[in-house]
Amino acid sequence: MSVICIVNQKGGVGKTTTAAAFAQGLSERGQRVLLVDWDPQGSLTISFGINPDNLELTGYNILRSVIMNNGRPAIGEVT
Q1: Is the dihedral of CA 1, 10, 60, 30 positive or negative?
Q2: Cβ atoms within 10 A of the Cβ of 30, count?
Q3: In angstroms, how far is the first alpha carbon of the chain from the final one?
Q4: 4, 22 Cβ separation under 8 angstroms
Q5: pLDDT for position 33
Q6: Which of 8, 28, 53, 76 could bridge to 67 as Cys pair (CB 3.0-4.6 Å)?
């Protein structure tokens, strides 16, 4: 199993477009692909025709629910 991450701190550089196109290309070649959309805006989800507002659970909401306060300001923790 390979893991490919498409990251950049800056917005608007094409991360979502690249991820969607790359996943589509791999799937057309018979590869199994899992896309995880951690963006609270759900842009990747929307690009596949799914309205994130209609989802009961999202990856973003699940992650927010498991972040623990460790007593230090502005630092959360997931274990």
Answers
A1: negative
A2: 6
A3: 23
A4: yes
A5: 96
A6: 76
